[in-house]
């Protein structure tokens, strides 16, 4: 039974999930937040402008101190990747004996290579330098997830839902479990298309494959995806990087049964779409480069696979981030 849920990071996706859960009355929902978002939650509660124009609101219990919130049945982590390494060691007060941790984040999560024979139980330095996240959040707590939804925060604490309500979730080892079914049912009652998966790693890799190039290329160039795809040289470079990522996927049990051009056709239907990384770059926020490009490059290197396009993309995006103060000088990714 999942009675108590904490949203860690009540931004666009965290706020979308938190508001729908709170408004549904299916659980006691609280938030770990800070700054202006914390103040907005305390004064105005959860607020969501749904894609159909409906305004959803619910009272919110929020704090910037995990000890104020106490042990939870489900902790949904929806912070930006660069923030998690510093935040994870503080989450102990939220974690009870049976607490489930559901990361609702972009890219390759810190736990992705745990349990994969080719990596002998070692983590990814690109997303968990020093292993602090893995040490703070036990692998046995993790339920994998992929979010297929787009939302933004026009102002702190207020979420605008644009499209999509899909959530794919499952055990990292692919087995069926009562807890995965319980979380899926809870999210479905809150209005999401929650789908259990027996290979959530493959679902994560597929989404990554689609985001791998559009996100960093848009950040570097300032271009929307329609302009990226309209340039034959840039489009060809993106396809080359995607082919490298597909080869990596085949080696780790996450095959991609789709050609880059087919994916480009789907992306083109979005029109003049600004990716999340472009939005972050334009707002002066840190780039989620490590979980999207850095981890892909690291996995390829550790498998001994050639990744010249992914390497070039990482180098260019990393340099762009450093020049603009959006990526740390000391981090090698």
From TrEMBL:
GO biological process, one term: pantothenate biosynthetic process
Top-level taxonomic group: Bacteria
Domain Ketopantoate reductase C-terminal: 199-318
First-tier enzyme category under EC: oxidoreductase
Signal peptide span: none
GO cellular component: cytoplasm
Annotated metabolic or biological route of this protein: Cofactor biosynthesis; (R)-pantothenate biosynthesis; (R)-pantoate from 3-methyl-2-oxobutanoate: step 2/2
Name of this protein: 2-dehydropantoate 2-reductase
Species whose genome carries this gene: Variovorax guangxiensis
